[in-house]
Amino acid sequence: MEKGNKDRQKGLHLFISSLGPTLGPCLSALIAGYIVERADWRWCFYVLCMFNFAIAVGGNLFLKETYAPTLLSRKAAKLRKLTGNQNLHCIYEVATGETTFGKFYVNLSRPLSVLFKNPMVLGLGIFMAVAYGCLYILIVTFPAVWGEVYGFGKGSTGLMYLSFLIGYIIGIVFFQYSATWVLHRLIAKNNGVSKPEFRLPMLLVSGITLPVGLFWYGWGAEKKLHFMFPAVGAAIFGFGLIAVFYCIQNYLIDMNPRFAASSIAAASIFRSYLGFAFPLFAPIMFKNVGYGWGCSIFGFIALATGIPFPLFVILYGERLRLWGNRIMDRAQAKRDAKNLARLKRMQEKQLVQSEQHKDATSESS
């Protein structure tokens, strides 16, 4: 029961965190439409700066540290201060004494290492990147579709971004309960033992709904059907997009908890690049082939990346996951051994200095 509650809470928190990269672009476009219509376009950036400043200040003031290695390191430091025993260290403090450049290099290079050495991160990261790139393609086509094809004003065009919001809300409610239910059923069938692969079955729903949403939106705009037709397609796409972030991030966290942040950062590399690159050539492509075939091309790409590899991971991914984890664990073990030797040398040096100080004190007395 306790494990189930933790899984449910973890899923809810990940759903909430996934609203940032999914809901943010849509709400910002909606708000920006009214800002540009009633004020100056520069106010879009003014409002963004003020909002980010408020979030940064609030986060630093009110959010607490939750990373276990940091908490244990702080506890060990507190115990050393209280007891005077400088030999009290936790396992995560082996990096003590490592140079700032060394820490910076490791933290910068590890996501790239995870991305190219772990096929699970690479394959699932590509699907997440394609989904995120398609989201930005839809976002940049909204002004042309609703403004030029349907004759909406800037404010009304901004309101059409609510179709994504409706899809997100339905997706959150549906996937929160369905993904948790599937997870618990698979755990029960596996004699109560959980596996990261149990997080992925609902990802196949996204592999279907994302292309369907793109086809629906593109051909509705191409044939100039009722404006609700492409709006429903955008909502279907938003519905499926929620599961992409939820399932993949859950899997990356469970796959290797110690390197969860690096795995998510590695997957975000592709996501950010395609989110930047797709809108650059999408307008030209839509102008040449139309909204129908343009969205269909991206729909087929989403289908090709969203079904085969996730299905392979669900059925046969455990061995590949363990192989990738062993590579990362060996690299971390070498770093830990090197830093542990450095820490021992530091302690021996401190011990010698302490003995010399005692001898000097006794001689002077």
TrEMBL record:
Any one Gene Ontology cellular component term annotated for this protein: membrane
Domain of life where this protein originates: Eukaryota
Alphabetic keyword roster: Membrane, Transmembrane, Transmembrane helix
Name assigned to this protein: Major facilitator superfamily (MFS) profile domain-containing protein
Residues making up the signal peptide according to the UniProt record: none
GO molecular function: transmembrane transporter activity
Residue intervals passing through the bilayer: 12-35, 41-63, 120-146, 158-179, 200-219, 225-248, 260-285, 291-316
Pfam families reported in the protein's UniProt record: MFS_1 (PF07690)
Entry membrane topology: Multi-pass membrane protein
Cell compartment(s), UniProt: Membrane
PANTHER family for this protein: MAJOR FACILITATOR SUPERFAMILY, MAJOR FACILITATOR SUPERFAMILY (MFS) PROFILE DOMAIN-CONTAINING PROTEIN-RELATED
